[in-house]
Amino acid sequence: MNGVIHGVKGLLTFLSSPLLGAYSDIWGRKSFLLITVFFTCCPIPLMKISPMWYFALISVSGLFSVTFSVVYSYVADVTDENSRSSAYGLVTATFAASLITSPAIGAHLARLYSENFVIALGTVVAILDLVFIFFVVPESLPERLRTDQKISWDKIDPFAALKNISNDRFICLICLIVLLSYLPEAGQYSCFFVYLRLMLGFSEDEIAYFIAFVGIFSCIAQTALLACLQKYFGSKETIMVGLFFQIVQLAAYGIATSNWVMWFAGGLAALSSVTYPSISAFVSVYAKDNQQGLVQGMVNGVRGLCNGLGPALFGFIFYLFDVN
Predict the structure, then answer these.
(1) Which of 55, 144, 222, 317 has its CA 20 to 30 A from that of 291?
(2) What whole-number distance in Å separates Cα of residue 269 and Cα of residue 222?
């Protein structure tokens, strides 16, 4: 069921991300930031109200929950080329920090109060997020970039967008890099904690500590390390460094037979987290100012596809080798 949900959501994200990105280039980022955050968060209250509708809405939300492409386009609007990569790193580091803290906070509050309290609190936080965007966050896309632009179906059709990619060698190569790097990463993270528990005997506490370790180290890598690499080497070289760390950590995970190797590989996984913000910064420099949303949407769409295919692929591999 989990694999099907992620697969449907990833496919819908892949199809809709260029569409929403193209629209945000014309009508501005703020309205689409509201839409994407709303559809990302709207399944939360249904966790207790109706589990069936919750799973259905999680799947369908892939059409609109492409927050990263809108956020990256927003960052490209308000930063220059020199500071853009660091800003992208800060965005992804903030996301990583939320992944570290939210499960622990949720579990603690559930023990103190109830699961219903946690769901209600999550709903309130989501509403406050929407209110903050509506009243506080300014529009980032200048009016001069939004006037006198026509929307054509060829521009926003996801299949036409894919056709256009084949005519742009740079974007095609970037999307291929994202596909080949994020497909194993998405699959790895979906099955990894099951692997730790079943194959290496990690306890729940050890898994929680491992998540915290990787998350904290990722925050450091995506801020301090990323800024240093960008300053002294540049975006392309930083991408190569991130991919190198990813190759080594995947190999280490595959051959690991002791816990210390897994912790070492976890550190390498955190270092490899500099890859995607560097790719986004690299693409944003290449794209025109009035096409940031479309290009970021294409890249994020491939990432969304990986989020769907990766868990399904790794789940099938687990099934083939009787890892249950």
Answers:
(1) 222
(2) 12
Helix (H, G, I), strand (E, B) or coil at 234: coil
For the beta carbon of residue 98, count every other beta carbon within 10 angstroms. 12
Contact 302, 176 (CB under 8 A): no
Q: Which two tokens stand for residue 300?
A: 């994020």
**Residue 185, CB-side half-sphere exposure with 13 Å CA sphere:** 24
Task: Measure the CA–CA gap between 271 and 238, rounded to whole angstroms.
Answer: 11
Give the Cβ contact number of residue 99 at 10 Å. Answer: 15
Please state the pTM of the whole predicted model.
0.80
**What is the rounded distance in angstroms from the CA atom of residue 208 to the CA atom of residue 306?**
25
DSSP H or E stretch at residue 30: helix 30-41
For 2-136+157-320, CATH number? 1.20.1250.20
Give pLDDT tens digits for 108-159.
Answer: 888 889 888 999 999 999 999 999 999 999 998 877 665 455 556 555 555 5
Q: How many Cβ atoms from other residues are within 10 Å of residue 56's Cβ?
A: 15
Average pLDDT in the chain? 83
Residue 28's pLDDT is 86
Q: Work out the end-to-end distance of the chain between its first and last CA atoms, rounded to an integer number of angstroms.
A: 15
How do residues 202-226 score in pLDDT, each as one tens digit? 887 788 788 888 888 988 999 899 9
Q: Which two tokens stand for residue 306?
A: 């990986």
Residue 243 CA: distances (Å) to CA of 51, 152, 211, 246, 267: 38, 37, 21, 5, 14
